[in-house]
From TrEMBL:
GO molecular function: hydrolase activity, hydrolyzing O-glycosyl compounds
Family named by the database record: Belongs to the glycosyl hydrolase 43 family.
Keywords for the protein's UniProt record, in alphabetical order: Carbohydrate metabolism, Glycosidase, Hydrolase, Polysaccharide degradation, Xylan degradation
Site entry: Important for catalytic activity, responsible for pKa modulation of the active site Glu and correct orientation of both the proton donor and substrate: D190
Protein name: Family 43 glycosylhydrolase
Record-level GO BP terms: xylan catabolic process
Keyword RNA-binding tagged: no
CDD domains according to UniProt: GH43_XylA-like
Amino acid sequence: MRTYDNNRNPILPPDIHIPDGEPHVMSDGKLYVYGSYDADMENYCSGEYHVVSTPDGKHWTVHDTSFSAEDVPWILDPSAKRYGTAADWTHPTPFMMQMIQDMIKDMSPEQLEKMARQQVQGDATENEEGSWREGANQKRPLLFAPDCIEKDGNYYLYFCTESGMEGVAVSDRPEGPFRDPVRLPCGGIDPAVFIDDDGQAYYYWDQFFSSGVPLNEDMVSFDTEKVVKNLVTEEQHYFHEGSSMRKIGDTYYYIFADVERGKPTALGYATSDSPLGPFTYRGIIIDNADCDPDSWNNHGSIACFNGQWIVCYHRSSRNSRMNRRLCMEKIRILEDGTIPEVKMTSQGLGDPFGPGERIEGYRVCGLRGNAFVGGPEGEAERIVGICPGDEMMFRYLQGEPVYTELELESGGSGQLEVWLDDCLAAEISVCGEGKATVPLDLTGLERKDTGYEIRLVCRRAEKLEISGMRFLA
């Protein structure tokens, strides 16, 4: 178990990667986040889950392993029944076709032949080495995104594997450990669970075309004859994966990874007056496309915590699709039920950064170009890979103070423009590792209480790295 005090993005220490976060306020009043656990550079997720909790959005606990693939006796059983998924890879949607093209470009002729053979045999989701959908070569089973809910003093963790198996385990504590896994009669990924005001529980899952079904009273089974398919789809709702259900007033919100902008980097939502639809697409809540040059997906949901609505999502790092980090933003639910899209921020659940407060480089919330968050293993993370023309955004800096200087911590050499909103505040040249200070010219800067966006624009770079900065008043 680890504790960590922070209300900035990313929420957790840089070495802890918990993506796919499902936030739930449990009966003890704490916020619990149930997500996957990225453990290396080669795979999405890992073979274990870690629950994260907080009483106030600032003091966090990363709990010990709550559930492990090793706890599932049937996960590698070759005789275990295989359930089909809604995705038909022989008749792909436009985005499925894009995924296939991305996968096969790096495959050998032998791998392509094997994949084609599996398609003909009707087992396109798994082989003895792992999931072909990610071009993986796994020997240890992976646990993909989970969800959890409380009922009658028990906590039910719904999980899935990279091979499309789904199940549920139970605990008497929200952080686990979860035990006694039960196989569910469905195949796919990214389970979600929801209990309506009348006590009826519902289960959701799958990719490209989502499915939903009422759960039985025992919370670990359902009638397959009651499954409703195509609740949200790629064609009608830009649905990719990452199902999540919430209810606000009398309206049901289906939240998911959204491909409207070309990749599933956004969280979108659709609404209905019924938990099983039909659903109407409403828009995007947040998009993480600019978090990393190789940003690929998003997964999360919303919660009302201590009177404030928040969205939980993740950002990839280290110039990869993996190493995804838990992030949170404040959001609003308007009177008409819509959720205005919010930008990624560095401040997270906290207030804008103030005078003299260190803004670490790894808290950058927007990257354009080649730059990314990384650095040698074992060293503090920072912005690296910076090239001329790259832009790096931090949101937000308090708008009330009159700032006079910028102190920049960097390595290598280069030249940067420093912008506050649309005001060019300074140009700074750096050479060698250390701190450089430059006066700020804020002539023409429009004062505003909501805070300024900080934008660093690289004009020259030679092994330039940015570790952090302070704005002095």
